[in-house]
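User: I'm writing a tutorial on reading structure tokens. Could you give me a worked example: one chain, its sequence, then its tokens, then a sentence or two explaining what the tokens reveal?
Assistant: Sure. Here is the example chain.
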Amino acid sequence: MEILNKANRIRLFSFNTPQMRAFHFSWFAFHICFFGWFGIAPLMAVVRDDLGLTKTQIGNTIIASVAITIVVRLLIGVLCDRIGPRRAYTWLLCLGSLPVMAIGFADSFESFFLARLAIGAIGASFVITQYHTSIMFAPNVVGTANATSAGWGNLGGGTTQILMPLIFSGLLMLGVNEAFGWRLAMVVPGIVLFVTGVCYYFFTQDAPNGNFAELRARGELPAASGESGAAQTFMAAAKDYRVWALFVVYAACFGVELTINNIAAIYFFDNFDLTLATAGMIAGLFGLMNLFARTLGGIFSDLFASKGGLKGRVRWLFIAMLCEGVALLFFSQMHVLTLAIAIMLVFSLFVQMAEGATFGIVPFINKRALGAVAGIVGAGGNAGAVAAGFLFRSESLSYQQGLFYLGIAVIIASLCVLVVRFSPEVEAEEAKAYADAAGEDTGAGALSLR
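And here are its predicted structure tokens:
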């Protein structure tokens, strides 16, 4: 599909154009999804005591929270192609708010496990965010737009670590006991999710020139594929080895971030003898790096592309992945709190830059199957989190040992980047598209703060 009037610049403080409204609503929606998705993580020490969970059971709930997202991410990209990102996001947010609030009814490991499994579906929001910004922004800034919207969404992993213990503490100050407090605290992200879903429907549109239904009625977009067409689109993406190479790469960066979001608070709480609030604040720093780190990954991807084309984007991703793996190895060996925090921040920087660099490449793999490509690669992140989850559910393996093995896995996964190739024709076509986008001003946006 060919979308017209994509913005070739980004005006961060503009809400006047459909491109910038999609940009701001998509990152905020993803941010709120993180709020609901990982809202329970910083309260796990309390939940553990209330429900009597073992380390293995906690590990199983961590796996559950990201496992279902693999399936939903694979499906949501194709759904975006059919009904558009606006309606897809609205349905996901509104329906996803229900299990977030319902987790408060959990009274056993089994019911808590099922609730976390259901909540994991809202993690598919990432694919919609990347899809929406990919069709709104031109090649010269799409890497930056994708990375920034996803990064500010991932920032929700940090704000959640900080806000949820504060909400919980506030409820305790009002006289609520701990067993009821963590349950009541989860109602907050649930309500925000539902309201955001309603706003997304009324304040955004699918593409620069209108919603998909309008574009199809005007003949500007092909008719929505039926089940067979959707299957063909998905298979076209699934048959491309580059998609699976990026699947592995994203498993080793975003999958690692999801894992850290799940274990960071309880890791610092147990290993450094901290209070729940302090552990949450420190764990939150990891996610807060998304304020700029993932954006940097996208900016560098666009800069490398200006000099080396699509090959430049690939080279940058390899560098970021390799540095991530090395930093994780160092983090796993830290026993002094201040050093652990410092190395965690360096590690976080490269994790998130690698994520931004990955989706600086995704829009160029197969434009006709963009939703399917984004869905498969995005699902890789959750597949990685599931695989990593098994390292942290064993009673015989410490968290530090798990992190060390994870660092080795990341370094090995970085080699997959080197198999991503583009034909000379595609390289030349995208180099021209980049030059054209960089050389003209559509008026749809601006790479500035104006």
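What the tokens reveal: Residues 18-217+230-439 form a domain with the Growth Hormone; Chain: A; fold (CATH 1.20.1250.20). The radius of gyration is 21 Å.
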